[in-house]
Amino acid sequence: MDAKTSETNTGTLAVGEKSWKFPVMPGSIGPSVVDISKLYGQTGMFTYDPGFTSTAACESKITYIDGDEGVLLYRGYPIEQLAEHGDFLETCYLLLYGELPTAAQKTDFDYRVTRHTMVHEQMARFYQGFRRDAHPMAVMVGCVGALSAFYHDSIDISDPHQRMVASIRMIAKMPTIAAMAYKYTIGQPFVYPKNDLDYSSNFLRMCFAVPAEDYKVNPILAKAMDRIFILHADHEQNASTSTVRLAGSSGANPFACIAAGIACLWGPAHGGANEAALKMLSEIGSVSRIPEYVKRAKDKNDPFRLMGFGHRVYKNYDPRAKIMQRTCHEVLGELGIKHDPLLDVALELERIALHDDYFVEKKLYPNIDFYSGITLKAMGFPTSMFTVLFALARTVGWIAQWKEMIEDPQQKIGRPRQFYTGAPRRDYVQIARRR
Ligand code: SDX
User: Fold this and answer.
1) Which residues form the signal peptide (predicted)?
2) Which helix (H) or strand (E) element contains residue 15?
3) Architecture of domain 12-56
């Protein structure tokens, strides 16, 4: 991919008496970049940017976030419009291929995904190796990583056809694998996918149907689930996506790369925040206890954070959180839940935080994880499944980013350097002579 344009300018780095020039390239929208790929060769110095707060690790055309304005675009389309008018498989097509599908393309894509939803029957035996109380994310990391043991015909990453087959398989099988992880932990039999159901209805049925009776999918809940998947589908170079790219840069097979992304997403600072946010709301328990927790969140000596608040990029309201809040009200309304104490706590906590100087100064707003937990709990999911649902939805983003990296002629194995402050060279000391 060539981002260099005719308007490429140059920037100058001056250190002491010396100075060097580096190309400055404009993005199609958003910040320009200074190409420092030759900095070490020219200067003998590295840049230092822990957490990559100012570092573009790659060129991408997939997702764009304007953190100051609270804007999220998938291939240029605002998340609000995609969530309002489209469905999750349309978003998958858009992220993978770069354009919204025509009616014929959508029908074909839906057909191809639907007919890859079953997993190899021996996968079912793989689950038996876990304890029943295993966290479903541990099961997901294990089972997704094991997929490459079953699908040898889609792991040659140099073959565009195999890359696409692996992409379709991942998108199609994640709901089945996730539902099986849930069923296993609650001791219920696995439910096979049904090809006459749409993606999200199929998933809800595989999670909540039991052989003892017919299960009718609630279309309002299926639509809410589908919208939640759209909101979580991709998000630029977040920690788990960067993990997938780095794993893929070594040539690892796509199933192993997605398993690495799942492992990274699990952390409470990232995808695990939805589970942590609901636990936090439950621990706060009532509106009267909010001031105590807000005080703790502001205390530098207290590791407590308001889970579901703050974001590396958004310094404004996460646009997904607004849609998530609306979906939360829709789901609670459909389920006849007139009063949810957790929602009361969440709404009051948000109101207080958005008027508190600490959060205003640090530009800490609710993120997507703040309301998702309340919604998913109301839909019947245990907190341990929240991050699994995030991983299910994010799989298309990971795959699209992985595919973009593999197809980028400039890509090479990712191998960051370091700012070394350890011991200089020194000779070995025999144990008898050590003090
Ligand atoms: C996701 O990257 C993505 O795109 C991720 C994601 C995606 O879709 O992939 O959007 C999904 O992971 C959303 C984020 C979910 N995590 C949480 O809700 C956990 C709580 N949030 C924080 O841990 C934190 O806000 C992060 C991790 C999300 C962002 O951390 P940064 O960018 O490293 O910022 P920071 O920790 O340096 O915080 C800046 C300041 C600090 O104060 P000072 O040291 O400057 O005095 O803000 C404070 C922090 O102490 N702060 C908070 C806070 N978040 C940041 N204080 C209280 N509560 C919080 N939640």
Assistant:
1) none
2) strand 9-15
3) Single Sheet (2.20)
Q: Which protein residue's CA is at the shortest distance from atom 31 of ligand 1?
A: 312
Domain ranges of the chain: 12-56, 57-409
Q: How far apart are CA 190 and CA 192, in angstroms?
A: 7
CA–centroid distance, 311 to ligand 1, in Å, is 4
Cβ neighbours around 250 below 10 Å, total: 11
Residue 298 CA to ligand 1 center (angstroms) comes to 13
| CATH code given to domain 57-409 | 1.10.580.10
> Ligand 1, from 311, 356, 401: best to mutate by most atoms within 8 Å of Cβ?
311
Question: How many A from CA of 313 to the centre of ligand 1?
Answer: 9
Residue whose entry in the numeric block shows the structure tokens 């706060």: 284
Q: What is the model's pTM?
A: 0.94
CA 236 to ligand 1: nearest atom = 4
* Contact in structure between 75 and 61 (CB atoms under 8 Å): yes
Question: The dihedral of CA 19, 25, 26, 27: what is its sign?
Answer: negative
Q: Is 270 a catalytic residue?
A: no
| Residues contacting ligand 1 via CB (< 6 Å) | 51, 235, 238, 269-271, 273, 297, 305-313, 362, 364, 367-369
Tokens (6 digits) for 101: 């599908």
Q: Which of the following is catalytic: 110, 226, 318, 369?
A: 369
pLDDT digit string (tens) for the chain, length 435 residues: 344 444 459 999 999 999 999 999 999 999 999 999 999 999 999 999 999 999 999 999 999 999 999 999 999 999 999 999 999 999 999 999 999 999 999 999 999 999 999 999 999 999 999 999 999 999 999 999 999 898 888 778 888 998 999 999 999 999 999 999 999 999 999 999 999 999 999 999 999 999 999 999 999 999 999 999 999 999 999 999 999 999 999 999 999 999 999 999 999 999 999 999 999 999 999 999 999 999 999 999 999 999 999 999 999 889 999 999 999 999 999 999 988 899 899 999 999 888 999 999 999 999 999 899 999 999 999 999 999 999 999 999 999 999 999 999 988 999 999 999 999 999 999 999 999
Helix and strand numbers (H, E) in the chain are 18, 6
The answer to whether residue 161 is catalytic is: no
Give the DSSP letter of residue 434. -
Q: Which of 232, 270, 396 to mutate to test the pocket of ligand 1 (most atoms within 8 A of CB)?
A: 270
